[in-house]
Write a structure and sequence with these properties.
By secondary structure, the protein is an alpha/beta fold. The protein is built from twelve helices and 15 strands. The protein is globular and about 70 Å long.
Length: 421
């Protein structure tokens, strides 16, 4: 029996520009989180006495600003060397060979698989064969897995691959492949990277994304970490997610339809925030609060949005006892039910609802909208353009969310104006 750790998408020292623009943001804690998460990964490997560690691409977020990033990684790998734990890694789209101009000599326990063709590393003492290939260039659109070799007979074969295997819309379609194609290789485990959300694509053999090591913004919410893999003498596999993040992002959605007064709304929020704090295992939280729904409190909230945003931030400070930062507040309440109104409305407003619905479900139309709207970002003030996750009109998920908000806003204003001459 032996164990190994599978991690990916560390994005060490990710810059996270524009944090200073957020009210009360714990800037240094967030910027240092990727380093602390890597330290936790290394400590977990030592504590679990794993046989080796696999890193499936995007160790870095791009070319280093200076050599400090590389020195930090070397120091962490030296800790693993001193514990006699080897590391095998590949480069992904963010740290592809054509993007990195700086490099440092790595400790002897670290092996970067090459980008010219797939490589195989044999671990004879464990009877393990690790197959993998780094990216030569960032925009790698070939199916790299197709060139991976046949399994070594009798060995526990592992595929190490940075890919968007299922075409997840929130990530670029790099090194595309299929679950069926990966299974056909007859490896015993596929260690994937690129998709930042943990996702088990197949149980037999395990084909999975561990998710990124540390959430960097609200779209990377929930527990983040790696996968601990235990391999029995019969090559049966047991997988276990392990959280190593140090700062967690969450979205708290409050159903305003359950509130009759503003105080009711705040109490609902408090209860949900306390639940999130309890689930965070002592980690500080960055929380986006979204208040939505048809509600009696709509006029109260809509008439004084600044006051209610600050009421919500105050509840966050109180409920979290200093461990909760409210990243953003979105007030999306209405005095009408979108579902009921959509069924009863006809004419131009009904056509508008239909067009928005069509856009949400049509990938090509979404892509076209993104192309048309993205240039608008260049016209924004510099401080807004620098915010890491601001706007994001080039991503389908963000566009769908924006359409949801636009639909509510337009219908609410059109309905409010129906009685006007």
């Amino acid at each position: 029996m032996f164990k190994f750790l599978h991690a990916a998408d560390i994005h060490l020292d990710s810059p996270l520009k524009g944090l200073e623009q957020y009210d009360g943001a714990p800037v240094e804690e967030i910027r240092g989180a990727t380093r602390r998460a890597l330290e936790n990964l290394v400590q977990l490997a030592i504590d679990e006495e794993v046989a080796f560690v696999l890193l499936a691409g995007d160790l870095y977020d791009g070319d280093w600003k200076d050599f400090k990033t590389g020195r930090f990684f070397v120091a962490q790998m030296a800790r693993l060397r001193d514990a006699a734990i080897p590391v095998y890694l590949i480069a992904g789209n963010h740290d592809a060979a054509n993007k990195m101009t700086k490099a440092l000599r790595l400790p002897e326990n670290v092996r970067m698989l090459g980008h010219a063709q797939p490589e195989t590393v044999r671990l004879d003492d464990l009877d393990v064969a690790i197959h993998g290939q780094s990216y030569a260039k960032a925009k790698t659109t070939d199916n790299l897995s197709a060139g991976y070799p046949a399994p070594v007979p009798g060995a526990f074969n592992i595929g190490l691959l940075h890919t968007n295997a299922t075409g997840t819309k929130d990530h670029d379609r790099y090194a595309p492949c299929t679950v069926e194609g990966l299974r056909a290789k007859e490896y015993r485990y596929w260690a994937l990277g690129h998709v930042h959300k943990r996702d088990v694509l197949c149980d037999d053999p395990p084909i999975l994304y561990p998710g990124n090591l540390q959430g960097r913004h609200v779209r990377e919410s929930g527990p983040k970490g790696c996968t601990l893999v235990t391999v029995g003498d019969d090559h049966r596999v047991r997988i276990e997610p392990r959280a190593v993040d140090v700062f967690r992002w969450e979205t708290c959605r409050v159903d305003a339809s359950r509130a009759e007064t503003g105080d009711d709304l705040l109490e609902l929020l408090r209860g949900q925030l306390e639940d999130l704090v309890a689930q965070a295992d002592g980690r500080p939280l960055a929380v986006r609060v979204e208040v939505a729904g048809s509600s009696q409190v709509h006029e109260t909230v809509a008439s004084e949005p600044l006051r209610w945003e600050n009421e919500i931030r105050a509840v966050g400070q109180d409920a979290g006892a200093g461990s909760v930062w409210i990243e953003k507040v979105r007030l999306r309440t209405s005095s009408w039910s979108a579902g009921e109104s959509a069924q009863s409305i006809d004419g131009p407003i009904a056509e508008l609802i239909g067009l928005v619905s069509e856009a949400r479900s049509d990938p090509e139309l979404l892509a076209w909208l993104g192309e048309q709207l993205t240039p608008l970002i260049d016209k924004l003030p510099p401080e807004l353009r620098q915010v890491d996750e601001a706007i994001g009109l080039d991503q389908a998920g963000n566009l769908r969310e924006t359409l949801d908000h636009v639909e509510q806003m337009l219908i609410r204003r059109l309905l409010a104006g129906e009685g006007e001459p």
